[in-house]
């Protein structure tokens, strides 16, 4: 019995270490309410404020399930600095239909079906001209025609050299 408890504890520790999901917050939540229904993974972001290294590429994965049929899909990504939204160049308003896969790894393109689970994968370049500072990144996936939001989260970050 004791051996099973040790084995299960060891297995749980390994699984928690491997998952490395990033803690993200509901868009617009005043008291930083954690978002639990969307799995988000930023590469090398396991701390409370994600380091975004200038002149480098960062991998992101977002697992989501749309509440409505989606014909097309774009990002809305901006940094919030002193309560002012600043679009992140090369990422904001980007069409991402070609970056979608199904849960089983099958490549998927738009349209997306209501109730199905998908994963958005992308590599984001952090341009060198961004100044070094702390920033809250607002990230949403939207239908560009209806402007309906499929998923939305905010993540604390800092731009570093």
What does this structure look like?
The protein has 161 residues and is mainly beta. Helix content is 11%, strand content 41%. The strands form two sheets. Strands 1, 3, 5, 6, 10 and 11 form a six-stranded mixed β-sheet that branches. Strand 5 and strand 6 (84-87) form a beta hairpin. It is globular and about 40 Å long. The N and C termini lie far apart (51 Å). The relative contact order is 0.25. The model is unreliable at 1-19 (pLDDT under 50).
Describe this protein with a few key phrases.
11 strands, mainly beta, five-stranded antiparallel β-sheet, disordered N terminus
Number of strands: 11
Order of helices and strands: HEEEEEEEEEEE
Q: Report the span from N to C terminus.
A: 51 Å
How much β-strand is present in the residues?
Answer: 35-45%
Q: Could you name the ranges where pLDDT drops below 50 across 5 or more consecutive residues?
A: 1-19
Class based on secondary structure composition and strand pairing: mainly beta
Biggest sheet record: 6 strands, mixed
Which secondary structure elements does this structure contain, and how are they paired or packed?
Elements: H1 2-19, E1 25-26, E2 39-42, E3 50-53, E4 56-64, E5 74-81, E6 84-87, E7 100-102, E8 107-108, E9 118-126, E10 134-142, E11 149-160
Parallel strand pairs: 3-11
Antiparallel strand pairs: 1-11, 2-4, 4-9, 5-6, 5-10, 7-8, 7-9, 10-11
Summarize the structure.
With 161 residues, the chain is mainly beta.
């Amino acid at each position: 019995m004791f051996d099973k408890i040790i084995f299960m504890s060891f297995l749980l520790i390994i699984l928690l270490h491997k998952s490395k999901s990033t803690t993200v917050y509901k868009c617009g939540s005043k008291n930083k309410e954690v978002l639990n229904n969307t799995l988000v993974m930023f590469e090398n972001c396991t701390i409370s404020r994600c380091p975004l290294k200038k002149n480098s590429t960062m991998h992101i994965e977002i697992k989501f399930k749309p509440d409505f049929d989606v014909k097309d899909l774009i990002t809305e990504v901006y940094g919030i600095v002193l309560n002012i939204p600043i679009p992140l160049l090369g990422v904001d308003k980007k069409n991402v239909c070609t970056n979608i896969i199904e849960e089983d790894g099958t490549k998927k393109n738009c349209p997306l079906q209501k109730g199905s689970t998908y994963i958005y994968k992308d590599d984001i370049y952090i341009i060198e001209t961004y100044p070094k500072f702390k920033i809250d990144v607002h990230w949403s996936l939207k239908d560009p025609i209806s402007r309906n939001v499929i998923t939305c989260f905010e993540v604390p970050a800092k731009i570093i050299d």
